[in-house]
């Protein structure tokens, strides 16, 4: 402590905002969106309905949902110049870098939302982001693969048309229903998660009254880190490395436990959950459903299950309360559907978009909000006088 500032390296238990959107009990492994348990939403709701819930605070009536869905579907097309913007990036650029730039640029193509102020413009900006991000993510994948960017066909439905735009020619045009519902569920599971690194970033940037698009773009950048959203990509790399070195899970676990190796079990551990991440349990069962519906077996899924089993029975992980988090199994499903690992974190961003928007809007309408200004504990030298260079 120096002066009025106390340094808390745990940081995780320092509340720096109040919010009524998502509740997490990390010790018990509980997650609720606007009071609804994630397990019930995953079973009965969908990504778009949950996006409405996160933003409005209530589940929509049939009429409300149909009006919302129709409005979103009407905006899934993107401007021709916008395709040229995506195509202007090197195909080797990481998709998260392209997506972050594209989201920042959106207001330039839709001047009616350049200044996101007032309920109507906020609502339009919300709809534009929700509607266009799937198309942007799909186009970025097509661009990196040197493929044309197909027009949106919203009559196919929100998630099905995203998968068609992204994966057509990889998958047969008719995406199996089980794949569509699994993708919808995965997006829903990522929709919000309280004040995680990327959401806190969106709030910080927005607290300076940066507009919604630029605030969300900052969140996309934060999410790209391998300790955060980038973990789903890192899990696949980790599993492939284990498989390619004779698939010995115990050797890998011993390397993780050897602190000098600085190797982490990616997809395990969490700043808040000191119990099984409830989303991971749902994703794990969805993996079985998707692979079953595609008639696929997956050696990496078997390896992941073995790795989880070994870790959950090893004191090193049990004592540190390290359990699978949402990223441990998601990449295996994305890969089975046909996405390359470089697209796993963009899919996380697609899921998280409604949460970033809802949290930004909640903050902007909270009269107690002030510009983010964290303090520090000063650890540098005490005051001293300047010494002329000739005398140093
Ligand atoms: C997400 O916050 C959110 O809500 C995020 C998220 C969301 O929906 O937005 O849930 C999404 O980001 C999930 C997390 C994805 N990241 C990973 O899977 C990367 C691997 N996990 C970690 O690096 C780590 O667990 C963190 C970053 C997630 C959490 O780090 P903490 O809480 O700061 O953990 P820590 O560094 O305090 O670790 C405590 C101990 C340490 O050992 P000791 O120093 O006590 O001996 O546990 C060890 C750590 O070395 N440890 C791990 C480990 N995670 C922590 N050891 C091996 N493998 C790991 N994964």
Automatic annotation (TrEMBL):
**Reactions the enzyme catalyzes:** oxaloacetate + acetyl-CoA + H2O = citrate + CoA + H(+)
Per UniProt, which keywords does this protein have?
Transferase, Tricarboxylic acid cycle
| Cellular component, GO, one term | cytoplasm
Q: Which GO terms describe its biological process?
A: tricarboxylic acid cycle
Pathway per its UniProt entry is: Carbohydrate metabolism; tricarboxylic acid cycle; isocitrate from oxaloacetate: step 1/2
| Domain of life according to the entry | Bacteria
> Gene3D superfamilies given for it?
2.20.28.60, Citrate Synthase, domain 1, Cytochrome P450-Terp, domain 2
Q: Please indicate if the UniProt record lists Magnesium as a keyword.
A: no
Which InterPro entries is this protein grouped with?
Answer: Citrate_synth-like_lrg_a-sub, Citrate_synth-like_sm_a-sub, Citrate_synthase, Citrate_synthase_AS, Citrate_synthase_bac-typ, Citrate_synthase_sf, Citrate_synthase_typ-I
What does the record give under GO molecular function?
citrate synthase activity
Q: Where is the active site?
A: 270, 327
Question: Which NCBIfam families is this protein grouped with?
Answer: cit_synth_I (TIGR01798), PRK05614.1 (NF004126)
What protein family does this chain belong to?
A: Belongs to the citrate synthase family.
Name listed for the protein in its UniProt record: Citrate synthase
Organism encoding this protein: Serinibacter salmoneus
């Amino acid at each position: 402590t120096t002066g009025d500032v106390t340094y808390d390296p745990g940081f995780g238990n320092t509340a720096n905002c109040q919010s009524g959107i998502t509740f997490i009990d990390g010790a018990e492994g509980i997650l609720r969106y606007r009071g609804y348990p994630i397990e019930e939403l995953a079973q009965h709701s969908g990504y778009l309905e949950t996006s409405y819930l996160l933003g409005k605070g209530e589940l929509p009536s049939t009429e409300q949902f149909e009006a919302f869905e129709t409005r979103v579907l009407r905006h899934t097309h993107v401007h021709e110049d916008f395709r040229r913007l995506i195509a202007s990036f090197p195909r080797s650029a990481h998709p998260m870098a392209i997506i972050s730039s594209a989201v920042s640029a959106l207001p330039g193509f839709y001047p009616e939302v350049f200044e996101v102020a007032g309920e109507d413009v906020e609502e339009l900006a919300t709809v534009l982001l929700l509607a266009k991000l799937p198309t942007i993510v799909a186009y970025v994948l097509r661009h990196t693969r040197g493929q044309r960017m197909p027009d949106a066909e919203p009559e196919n439905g929100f998630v099905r048309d995203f998968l068609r735009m992204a994966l057509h020619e990889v998958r047969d045009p008719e995406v199996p229903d089980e794949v569509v519902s699994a993708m919808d569920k995965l997006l829903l599971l990522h929709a919000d998660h309280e004040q995680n690194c990327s959401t806190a970033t969106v709030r910080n940037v927005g607290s300076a009254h940066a507009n919604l698009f630029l605030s969300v773009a900052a969140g996309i950048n934060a999410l790209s880190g391998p300790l955060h959203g980038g973990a789903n990509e890192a899990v696949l790399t980790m599993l492939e490395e284990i498989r390619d070195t004779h698939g010995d899970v115990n050797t890998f676990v011993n390397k993780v436990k050897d602190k000098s190796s600085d190797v982490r079990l990616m997809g395990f551990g969490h700043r808040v959950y000191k119990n099984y991440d409830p989303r991971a349990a749902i994703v794990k069962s969805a993996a079985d459903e998707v692979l079953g519906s595609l008639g696929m077996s997956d050696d990496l899924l078997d390896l992941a299950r073995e790795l989880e089993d070994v870790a959950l029975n090893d004191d090193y992980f049990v004592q540190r309360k390290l359990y699978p988090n949402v990223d441990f199994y998601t990449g295996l499903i994305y890969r089975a559907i046909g996405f390359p690992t470089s697209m796993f974190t963009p899919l996380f961003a697609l899921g998280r978009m409604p949460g970033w928007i809802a949290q930004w809007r909640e903050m902007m309408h909270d009269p107690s909000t002030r510009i983010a200004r964290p303090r520090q504990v000063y650890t540098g030298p005490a005051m001293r006088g300047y010494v002329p260079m000739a005398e140093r």
